[in-house]
# Entry
Amino acid sequence: MGRKMKDVLAKSIIYLATGITLCVLLFIVGFIFVKGISLVNWDFLTRDYNEKVFYAFVQEEVVPMTIDAASLSQKDPYDKRYESSLEGPIYIENIGAAIAKVAYKNNATEKEQFVFSYIEKDSPLLSAIDSTGKKLSIGTDYILESINGTDFEGLSLEDVAAQINHETGELKIKVVQPGGGVRSNIITTLYMVLVSLLIALPLGIFGAIYLTEYAKPGRLVNIIRFAAECLAGIPSIIFGLFGMAFFVVALKFQISLLSGSLTVAIILLPVIIRSTEEALKTVPTAFREGSLALGATKLQTIFKVVLPCAVPGIATAVLLSIGRVVGESAALLLTAGTVAQIPGTLFSPGSTLTVQAYYVAKEEGNIELACAIGIVIIVIVIVLNILSRITSDKLNVFNKK
Amino acid sequence: MNKKIKFNAKNLDLYYGDFQALKSINLEICEKEVTAFIGPSGCGKSTFLRCLNRMNDLIDSVKIEGEIIFEGQDINGDIDVINLRTRVGMVFQKPNPFPMSIYENIAYGPKCQGVKDKTQLDTLVKESLVKAALWEEVKDRLNKSALGLSGGQQQRLCIARAIAMQPEVILMDEPTSALDPIATAKIEDLMSKLKKDYTIIIVTHSMQQAGRISDKTAFFLMGEVVEFNETPVIFTNPADKRTEDYITGRFG
Ligand SMILES: Nc1ncnc2c1ncn2[C@@H]1O[C@H](COP(=O)(O)OP(=O)(O)OP(=O)(O)O)[C@@H](O)[C@H]1O
Ligand SMILES: [Mg+2]
# Structure
């Protein structure tokens, strides 16, 4: 075979390999997007996963309809969870809103329910308050369960409309805010990133400083490095088990944000130590000598000269860490739980987006929803990456000429 | 005239591990003079220079025997190294300004010593830059990064940085070897001005430079001081054959 032939062959193999890699990547991302994108909308991002039932107090007030009947029936407030509207919508003047009867599907349960399909902008529903006088928001899609104690279950739409029109004065309405969103998971994810970085970054940076600046090269340092490297190679489920046994049970932190963050922080440590160490090593000795020759102490030298130079490397560590936290599922499943709620304190549980994606795919068999969560995860990772890159550029001492 | 002796090295030996880099050095360095160290590469000039402000402490394998008396105290003994380094400043071969603003570079040393007063720092920065003949060139860009300066300017900044500590001695290890002739001339000029106030010790590979700026010259060879005398004597009438060979360029 001629040299040229070999060249061409080698080249085509390289191109092919690159092509396949790219295709697989595009295919996966494309698959996730195609599957999930139809579920991603504003409501999906701003609603909690669980339904929220509340009582609203509304002052009855007659508001005439400002749109015509044709466009009313075209108002399509139903998201994918409702197959179609069974009856209606019917406009009800004394609350200034239209309701429709729908078959509501959630997981395995299927129920017939009444939902608001259209709300006038002068509607008294928009100034609804709760029993303590706090303002509530009621929107289209919300489920109407009862008014002044009359439960609507099993009634026809006409009966319900007549019933509501009949009521006067202050109305006490039982409303259900539909769930299915991921707001709490997004917030839990951000909390988890924040808390675990707050724990792992200082530890990792100080560890790296010890290893590069203080420790005499030798046995001990090698052992520490080896340990860190081993930690990096251990599958995260092991950390999850440890976190469950130690933080959750032994330290009695419960399944909580704190247990989860501590567990993830341990997973992050090797990454942070390694990148920071690399960054510290690339800081020229000339800077250290220059600083010491000016009568600075070692500590001053490290904090005023060496660390600022290492900022880009530390930023890389942060980047990698964010990816790890957002992507972590096994360890968090065991330590932070699968409750889709915003953790009120460090000691309350909450599921991150990844855990939630696992949960809905595995426990509810809802691949579409899991893919929709996947899209949100991808977007969050990209946004956090861009943010930390910008900050690291801003902080890079070598960029400022 | 009888000048005061600033450094007095007595039987100084230095080992890098097993390798003896300095062999029984005896040297008296006078105050407010320029002393030049010359000699072929690897003969121990930098090593000796770094002994004078204990920079060799940074190298783990170094072992030192003998004394260096500085102001009546043996600096190899149990002394305050930080204090020594504030009194004995150093300028390195490659300009090494910190990646900070010009102002911060100069204010760095004093700040590390706990000077916080803004006006005091301001005057210190200005005075140091004026003394280092850099003020006119940088006064409008004090808050710009020092990395944006030219090599020559950076080296003068490093000198200004050393001056800001108000040291008694300034050690310079081939301070002009990375610079062009014009920048070199500026720095040589600067040194002759600075010797009024400071004791200057300079390592150089340029015979002409040693001849132009130094009062005394020490010739190092293989870790020993072969000859130490007034610069004109060394260059016109050396006592040792090896010195003569070296300065006439006949050295192997
Ligand atoms: N950190 C070190 N570890 C081991 N040996 C060293 C170290 N630094 C210098 N040496 C050795 O000590 C000897 C003296 O080195 P030194 O740097 O003082 O020479 P120099 O006279 O400054 O040379 P040059 O003119 O090239 O700068 C050399 O043989 C060198 O190899
Ligand atoms: Mg040298």
Summary: The first strand of chain B starts at residue 5 and ends at 16. The two ends of chain B are 38 Å apart (CA to CA). The mean pLDDT of chain B is 89. The CA atoms of residues 14 and 186 of chain B lie 34 Å apart.
